[in-house]
Amino acid sequence: xxxxxxxxxxxxxxxxxxxxxxxxxxxxxxxxxxxxxxxxxxxxxxxxxxxxxxxxxxxxxxxxxxxxxxxxxxxxxxxxxxxxxxxxxxxxxxxxxxxxxxxxxxxxxxxxxxxxxxxxxxxxxxxxxxxxxxxxxxxxxxxxxxxxxxxxxxxxxxxxxxxxxxxxxxxxxxxxxxxxxxxxxxxxxxxxxxxxxxxxxxxxxxxxxxxxxxxxxxxxxxxxxxxxxxxxxxxxxxxxxxxxxxxxxxxxxxxxxxxxxxxxxxxxxxxxxxxxxxxxxxxxxxxxxxxxxxxxxxxxxxxxxxxxxxxxxxxxxxxxxxxxxxxxxxxxxxxxxxxxxxxxxxxxxxxxxxxxxxxxxxxxxxxxxxxxxxxxxxxxxxxxxxxxxxxxxxxxxxxxxxxxxxxxxxxxxxxxxxxxxxxxxxxxxxxxxxxxxxxxxxxxxxxxxxxxx
Length: 453
Hints:
Blueprint: E1 3-7, H1 11-23, E2 27-31, H2 34-44, E3 48-52, H3 64-70, E4 75-79, H4 84-93, E5 97-100, H5 105-117, H6 140-153, E6 159-162, H7 169-178, E7 187-191, H8 200-205, H9 213-216, E8 221-225, H10 232-244, E9 246-249, E10 252-255, E11 259-264, H11 275-280, E12 286-287, H12 298-312, H13 323-331, H14 337-352, H15 365-368, H16 373-396, H17 404-423, H18 428-435, H19 439-448
């Protein structure tokens, strides 16, 4: 999931963009002024920013340099006054793209997907990027990760990195790149969940009129996150291009010089890859552990996040941390691992306003950790649905009517009905009561699902 910041003082536009992007799986923040936008960017580190030009108090384009300091994210400028001067100012300020109001929401969706998929315009290909956020931790689990990163950095073969959501797969990939022979080349990232399956080929391999991500990463590294979302034919084409070290765009063969890293939330034994691509990957993937397996690192991570937050917000000092706060952090089970820990620590820093961090400054447990067994299980179900959706998109996306909603409902409903009947020993009246259905409805559903035996 990517985070998008929308900056517009018109409530209707903020609402419509929030609804559009949330429906596509993004977390969306809305700000009405530059001051609110800077605070949101420092707090939540958006992956892309949609920025209106005419805002109360301060012009949006003038704020682009400050926003880019707060969050290294591509900025798409929006304006109802689409003149040359505004366009030139936007480009010179480093805007990724430019939208003129009124715009079609479908076009906005495409521009945001492109912004999330491609590197920032101020990171020219062929030049070293700024020092990336390092991996933090000295636990036994992380020591094993470091050893595997060192081995992978000395290798040029395509690499697989796995780990749960928010565990730092992108940081591991950056570390492999930074310590390898291609460190002076570009590091390009794309997440396939942000792209429509029908456009994957063009995004990766390019079109007659546009360079693809493989060419953008020439001389460096391309990280493809959520590789399981790529249809088998795209994976096979990718493997063939890497094996031949050649691309064909617009009918013209082009040399391919890139290190490929693919990443997935699925463990390697549950990840189904095209045989051609799987054969090219190095023998041992790098596996990032969940935060529950490296609780010894929580203090070091928390202090690192506080130092970075203080630097980003130009705070005079880094807030002190009490032992009570560290104990509270260690007790929580983090749904999205290091990503959630960072959000909680930065939230506490904002609430504390420079004072010593205390447990009451942390977000509520329900927002950052489990409230009980049902919450824990619900998060596992959420992760399983995400995995199923990625595999289903790859399998069914080319059908005239993929109908993922119906397929998912049938899958979940059949399991739920079987469990209810098992719990009640096959007593349909009791099962119907447990499910909140009348007996006739349960009987119909069992017949429709082929469970009426």
